[in-house]
Write a structure and sequence with these properties.
This protein has about 200 residues and is an alpha/beta fold. The chain has a single domain (about 1-195), classed as Maf protein (Alpha-Beta Complex). It has seven helices and six strands; from the N terminus they run βαβαβααβββααα. It has helices at about 10-20, 45-55, 85-90, 90-100, 165-170, 170-190, 195-200, and strands spanning about 1-5, 25-30, 65-70, 105-115, 120-135, 150. The protein has a six-stranded mixed sheet. Helix 1 links the parallel strand 1 (about 1-5) and strand 2. It binds inosine 5'-triphosphate (ITT). Inosine 5'-triphosphate binds near residues 142, 143 and 144.
């Protein structure tokens, strides 16, 4: 069984990554003893790549980081890359207040995953999930903005979904699945993708 290491401080992300990678036969271990340094940048891909660069300099294991955010149309993409900070400061109520007279409640979650092995960054994968922001929070599941976000083609918030259902729609699950498909194909032809420690 292939095992990827996920450098994150968010245990919900670990659970979501496990659900997304299990169908591909890939397990997920939380990477301990690292610091995920996040630069300020409008592009999640840049944030993920620079965080990964530091981590791959310290391990040869197959490892990834994921950066994500909620981009609200009415607020010109705010909070975007600042989502974690805005969730901690304004919270759900603060965001709902900003949208009280909104002309549109459209929003999207974006995710960018950066992956490396044998001490090198190798690739980035991105995905997005469009939806709408509700006027009241609903549901106890998940984390962050889950109780106010309804993905397109459903009526449930992410907060009302079980993990398996969120995995169908989730920006993170889609980006991580792209990583899995790429890795499984490329590692057949490129020995550089196999962890050296597993070959020795
Ligand atoms: P790590 O950086 O340690 O991986 P984090 O939670 O700080 O964990 P981010 O820096 O990527 O992750 O912050 C993204 C924030 O965006 C996150 O804290 C949530 O507030 C929000 N967010 C991202 N994806 C979400 C999701 O699937 N459901 C709800 N909120 C989400």
């Amino acid at each position: 069984m292939i095992e990827f290491f996920f450098a994150t401080g968010n245990d919900h992300k670990i659970e979501e990554a496990r659900a997304a990678l299990a169908p591909h036969g890939i397990g997920v271990t939380k990477m301990e003893g690292f610091t995920k340094l996040e630069i300020q940048h409008p592009d999640l891909g840049e944030i993920a790549s620079s965080a990964l660069a530091l981590i791959v300099s310290k391990t040869e294991k197959p490892v990834f980081v994921e950066d994500s955010g909620l981009f609200i149309h009415q607020l010109n993409g705010f909070p975007g890359p600042y989502s974690s900070y805005v969730f901690e400061t304004l919270g759900l109520e603060g965001i709902l207040k900003l949208l009280e007279d909104a002309k549109t409640r459209k929003a999207e979650f974006r995710s960018s995953v950066a992956f490396g092995v044998n001490g090198k960054w190798l690739a980035n994968f991105s995905s997005a999930t469009e939806g709408t922001i509700q006027s009241q929070p609903r549901g106890e599941n998940g984390f962050g903005f889950d109780p106010i976000f309804v993905p397109m083609w459903t009526s449930k918030t992410f907060g009302e979904m079980e993990l398996r259902e969120k995995t169908i729609y989730s920006h993170r699950a889609k980006a991580i699945s792209k990583l899995a498909l790429w890795y499984l194909n490329e590692s057949k032809i490129d020995p550089e993708l196999k962890p050296k420690e597993s070959i020795l």
